[in-house]
Amino acid sequence: MSSAYYTQIWQTVRQIPPGKVASYGQIADLSGLPGRARLVGKALGMAPESMPLPWHRVLRSNLTLAFAAGTPQALLQRSLLLAEGVTFQGQRVAKTAQWQPDLAEMLFALTY
C-alpha cells in the first residue's frame, strides 16, 4: 500500500480536536479513501512512534473503543479520552463528542 495513503490518514487524524472522536470509516472518507476503514487501522499501527498522533480519538463506527473491553489498550484509550473531557454512555462515547468538521476545516485543514 502506498505510504502516501498513510500520510493522508495521519494528517486527517491529527486534525481531530481534543475532546472529539471520529470513526475509522469517517477518517477514511475525510482522507479521500472512502471504504478503506481497515486501512486507517493499519496506518495507525504503522505510524512512527516519534509522530505525535492522537490515535486514541479514533473509534469503531458504533462509537465504542477500538480495543476489546478490559485490555490495557482499551483502558489507556478510555483514560486518554476521559482526560480530554469525552463522556461515555456505558461502553460508547457520547454522540456529542463525534467530530463533524466544518467546511473551512475540510477545505483548508484537510488538504492533500
Write the layout of secondary structure elements.
Blueprint (H helix, E strand, L loop, with lengths): L2 H12 L7 E2 H7 L6 H10 L11 E2 L12 H12 L4 E2 L2 E2 L9 H7 L3
Parallel strand pairs: 1-2
Antiparallel strand pairs: 3-4
Identify the strand order in the major beta sheet: 1-2
**Shape estimate:** globular
Biggest beta sheet summary: 2 strands, parallel
Radius of gyration: 13 Å
Task: Label the structural class.
Answer: mainly alpha
Strand content: 5-15%
Order of helices and strands: HEHHEHEEH
Low-confidence stretches: none
How much helicity do the residues have?
40-55%
Question: Could you explain the architecture of this structure?
Answer:
This protein is mostly helical and 112 residues long. Helices cover 43% and strands 7% of the residues. The chain has helices spanning 3-14, 24-30, 37-46, 72-83, 103-109, and strands at residues 22-23, 58-59, 88-89, 92-93. Strand 3 (88-89) and strand 4 (92-93) form a beta hairpin. The radius of gyration is 13 Å and the shape is globular. The two termini are 17 Å apart.
